[in-house]
Amino acid sequence: MTTADAYARFAGREVRGISPAYERLSRAVSRDDELLALLDGLPPVKRQPNLLFGVVRWLGGPVEDPAAFHDYAVTNWPAIEAQVRVRATQTNEAGRCAVLLPVLAALPQPLALLEVGASAGLCLYPDRYAYRYGEHQVGSGEPVLDCTASGLVPPARVPQVVWRAGLDLNPLDVTDPDDVSWLDALIWPEHAHRRARLRAAAAVAAVEPPLLVRGDLVDDLPALAARAPAGATLVVFHTSVLYQVSAPRREEFVGLVRGLPGHWVANEAPEVLPYEGLPPSPEEGLHNVLALDGTPLAWTRGHGQAMTWFA
User: Fold this and answer.
1) pLDDT for the residue numbered 302
2) How far apart are CA 307 and CA 149, in angstroms?
3) 122: closest CA among 26, 68, 202?
4) Helix/strand/coil percent split, the chain, to 5
């Protein structure tokens, strides 16, 4: 897939109807030969729209108007390139806990949670948030995570979590204003509700910061998993992470995580982590597949805003 194709696909599948600003911007970049040439000078994994747009937002550049974006990006490319090369799309969307909750609540309690690609670890607190599935509410506190769910009865209670840890190549610190500002920059321009949710989730995590380990998802996972307390169900989980990992490394990870004690919860795009016999996704747009121990269970939207259970 060319860089132009990737930006056109991002516009059509990921942000259409969700972020008008990023849809306009992605379509414009897909036709902008000057910007495409600059992007093609980067490693393939660094050319993705979310990363470019997040860096420009973090640097204070414009993302609402494609012409202004073009001028800013071309003029400031050395600064943009420097940040793109050292940063990653570490979107830490606590809303994803809403699609993980039905699986986590059904496992033998208590849980020892280990998130791969944890960013700042905000998805390690599913027991501390409240949830709203239509008229059905679960838990208490802030933030309240809204999710449109079909095909399942929402859980009656939040899970009991006795240990929480995360593994990331570059873990972020919710008590560091610079790290939080990067997480904010990764949120799409119009999504004020997600910014409020980020602040509320960060406040929860800051009270009792998780154990975050800098490391690789294959090389360093077994040692961290071994630190989980006895008597708790180990749950290794990840969401929208494996697209940043090469296909051979993904296969190594899958083989490794299947051999660990406990359970494995994956929430990834079907082209990244494929399954046989999936039903059609419920609507246009990008959907992830929620799976438990390699068995697909539901279609989910990327920020946890909706899920369709098919298991």
Assistant:
1) 87
2) 5
3) 202
4) 40, 20, 40
